Amino acid sequence: MSSEAGTTPDITRTDCAQCGTEVHGLDGRYACGGCGWVNHYSDGHNELPGAETDVDYPNPLLPG
Predict the structure, then answer these.
(1) Averages of pLDDT over each 10 residues, the chain, 64 residues
(2) pLDDT value of position 6
(3) Local structure of residue 8 (DSSP, 8 states)
(4) What is residue 23's three-state secondary structure?
(5) For 16, left (φ over 0), alpha (ψ -120 to 50), or beta?
(6) Overall pTM > 0.70
(7) CA 10, CA 8: separation in Å to the nearest integer?
(8) How many CB atoms lie within 10 A of CB 28?
(9) Burial class (CB in 10 A: 0-12, 13-18, 19+), 45
(10) Organism's domain of life (predicted)?
(11) Can you tell me the distance from the alpha carbon of 43 to that of 51, in angstroms, rounded to the nearest whole number?
């Protein structure tokens, strides 16, 4: 299953690249609570949705 807008992302697991702790994430994007390691967003299994899918887009606090 993909994490395109409106779908549920997959829960995935890996070992932390820094300390080896087992970490879980969404669609291949991880953050380790033990040491603070995070993988780069482009390492995920799917593309991230664009800003236009955000419920606050366009940002009402920005001029224009």
Answers:
(1) 64 96 96 96 88 79 67
(2) 60
(3) P
(4) strand
(5) beta
(6) no
(7) 7
(8) 17
(9) middle
(10) Bacteria
(11) 19
